[in-house]
Amino acid sequence: MNLTILLWLPLAAVVAGLILPATEARFAALLGSAATLVLSIVLLVKFDTGEKGLQFVIDKVWISELGIHYKLGVDGLNLFLIVLAAVLFFASIVWSAFREWDRPRLFYLWFGLAESGVLGALMAQDLALFVIFFDLMLVPFLFLGGGWGTPENRVASMVKLFIYTLVGSLLMLSAAVATGVLAPGDSVTFDIAQLSSAARRLPVGSQEWIFLFFAAAFLVKMPAFPVHGWMPDGYRAMPMPVLAVFSGILSKVAAYGFLRIALPVFPDAAVHFQELVLLIALASVLYGSAMAFTTSDVRLILGYSSVAQLGFITLGIFSLKDTGAQGALLQAFNHGLVVAPAFFICALLAARAGGSEDIRDMGGIAFRAPVLATLFLIVAFANLAMPGSSNFVGEFFILLGVFTSKIVIAIVAFTGVALASVYTLRLFIRAVHNRVGPHVESREISLTDGLVVAPLVVLILAIALYPQIALKRSQDAVQASIRDAKALTQPAREASR
Amino acid sequence: MIVAAAKAPHIDWTGLSPLLALLGGATLVLLVGLLRPRVVRETLVPLLALAAFLATIGLGIWQYGEQKDLISGALRLDDLTTVLSFIFCTGGAAAVLLSWRAVAPREAAHGEYFALLLTTTAGMWVLVAAQNLVSLFLGLELLSIPLYVLCATEMRRATSLEAGLKYLIIGSVGSATLLYGLSFLYGATGSTDFAGIARATGSVANDSLLLTGIGLSVVGLAFKASVAPFHQWTPDVYEGAPTPVTAFMAVATKAAAFGAFLRLFNVALLDASVDWAPALAVLATITIIVGNVGALGQSSLKRLMAWSSVAQAGYMLAGVVVATQLGVQATVFYLAVYLMMNLAAFAVIVIRERETGLGDDIASVQGLGAQRPLLAMSMTLAMLGLSGIPATAGFIGKFYLIDAAISGDYTWLGVVIVIGSMISLAYYLKVVAAMWMQDAPTPGTALATGQPAMAGGSPEADTVGVQPETWFVALLFGAATLFFGIVPSPLFDLAVDAGHAFTGLF
After folding, report:
1. Helix (H), strand (E) at residue B288
2. Contact: B417, A174; criterion CB under 8 Å
3. How many CA atoms are closer than 13 Å to the CA of A394, on its beta-carbon side?
4. Is A154 an interface residue toward B (CB < 8 Å)?
5. How far apart are CA A196 and CA B383, in angstroms?
6. pLDDT in tens, B439-496
């Protein structure tokens, strides 16, 4: 299993697609993302659950003068996120292929670059390489949103999104260079595994500012409550299939960044700032939920619900407990799997409501379109973490973790679970039930659209039946990721043993 | 001693050959330019200039890796000289291609225009090869005076003349300040050659004469490198000068000025680094902030590039400040990638100036993505590279500079570079957004800034045909920006070799 092929296949396919006539460009992207999906499933099958540490490692010197390696690897932390990325990109490209786009070759070129960028950020095991992919994956979204988004104000919105998130990423760049250069060692290295022991010998002050810079990058990308300013405009501007992958996978890369880099490399600082990050996460849960049941734009309802869900994920990670962190990683996978079909379904509902994406203009189509409504119901139930869904397992673990570490925060966070049912059910009821909206024309989901949405819903059901498939494989890696930080939070008990 | 003084200085003619190629080329071009046939003036002359630039690069490659003193130690041929000469000869060659169909050489006579271009490059060569204060100043003047004239070569456009005059006056102030500073350095150390100054500075570290000399020299070189707060001339001169000259100034003058910075501060004044390093660090910070903030509101692409060049000078100054091998390498590396990104951008500006009649207004690139995707891609790579987005050479360059700043104990300067990049995104993205996300302006809405119909301008000269040589420059350097962002090793080798010229650094 060669990770390089998996990483660059989507980009290679669309670059090759540039020679095709414009009308056929979609087939190159389809082929590339389908092959990537197949490879990612092969990866999942070949993954050795019992083995600790990285698998399928590729480690080559890229820039020897700077000590940057081209190091890729897969372990329990990124395995399922890689699969998620491959699934969502394939679904989005299939969705896009059934629709007509202006300048299609360029459209799919950016799509392919986005997929390679996301996969790179997930697989990179070198800090500098991670930073490169983390920035790079954003570039295609600037062009996709700015070039093909909703006409009004798309350019300003996407530039705002890009600058906002890149401010965090650039801070992370300086933090990453500082980590590599300042960490004691024979030579400059950015290898995350090596840094996780070396960086702890840095002065406490350096560790803390470096951690804060990393946290800034991840929290902006999620987005978390005080730094979410790019989200409403950006979400309104992006075309739906682009938004589905953006919301589905990019925010998860940020959560993954905490587990891959911030916690193992800077455990002392992570413990030092644990409460700060927990409070930010809690604020995101409450603010996101409150906004989600007061706004009426479907994109923003889902956007703010993502803010809340990502808040939950951050809570789980920073509970610094095995259960909480495992729940967070599972929830990252679940949320990506739920939010993407939710955006697709909302696009279908908007198309049936005369193009309006306001829930006040929708409604009353469940009677004539039962299949669409049922699909949406399953997605909605998963989103509100109905018992029986995999999201329930994830949220349960997260709250269990927070409960054992910070009980007050856990109690407040519980309200977020209740609020999630409020905003999700409100969205569902207003969008498909109630009175028929003014311009609504009830149509069943078409076969082609069903081809995209239904498999995703089946996946949601599958993971709901058997969440252990993800939990079992991620267990060791998650525990290793938070081990040092966890040990620091319970010194008294360790000593008494 | 008396016998030695009576002898003529030993001259290493092979070592001097790159300089001779430039000066000989200038003479030849000037003479050939006097011939009557139009084909000679419009084709042969630029070709000869191009050949002179390429010959200089070739002679540099031939003597690559050698270290020798020329003319009794007044000049030195080492890898720093050679690598920097690659940079400004590439800039010069690109400027020749960009000037091929330009108005400026037609108005100023081809022979003179290209001879001036070669002479100023010779001045740059002397400046970066200089090993003592006198040859440093000679090089600076040989660089500056032809450049003043080149700025004013579009003789029937008032802004071009204004740019030339402005550059002359401010540049002279800069030269005078530098000269004054150099005289103080001589007074403090009793020596004009860098090695002698380096020996003397150890004992006179806090001498007020030396400090005055350092201060005035910083100011003088800062004028040339457009380091804030001595950058005010930059936007006006960049905007007014003919665009090919602007492109050349942006990349080559910057490289030469930083070569001089490195020679003077990281060799001659190395032991006094406690005196100048904090001051230069503050200047770098001011430059980064002023340059990036100044660029925000610009709608003229040339002014935007001017402010951007101010900001970029600030980044590169960080490499000088730390006074380490890594710092020198990072500066030289950045100069090389800066050359690529700027030439790609300016080539696109030149093409659009000729095609649209909108001058260098940002409207001239609107809708370029739909009309000319390849050109737009080049410009996009240049803009993303300048702002430091990964997968471009600019990112690696910035990474290198931050790396150098942090390992030289200037972590905060590394963070300032990053903050500068954040601000810079706002204006670089404005250009990118104009190309890909806005529609081309409808014909007939030409702005007043377009090339005016000039008295005596022949109508056939105003029609634009294909311009393969400018396209070549745009696409070549756009591709190079991408290529060296992914495979940076060749540039690293050059930068590391150039760093070896500084034996006093570690």
Report:
1. helix B273-296
2. yes
3. 34
4. yes
5. 35
6. 887 765 544 444 444 444 444 444 556 788 999 999 999 999 999 999 999 999 999 9
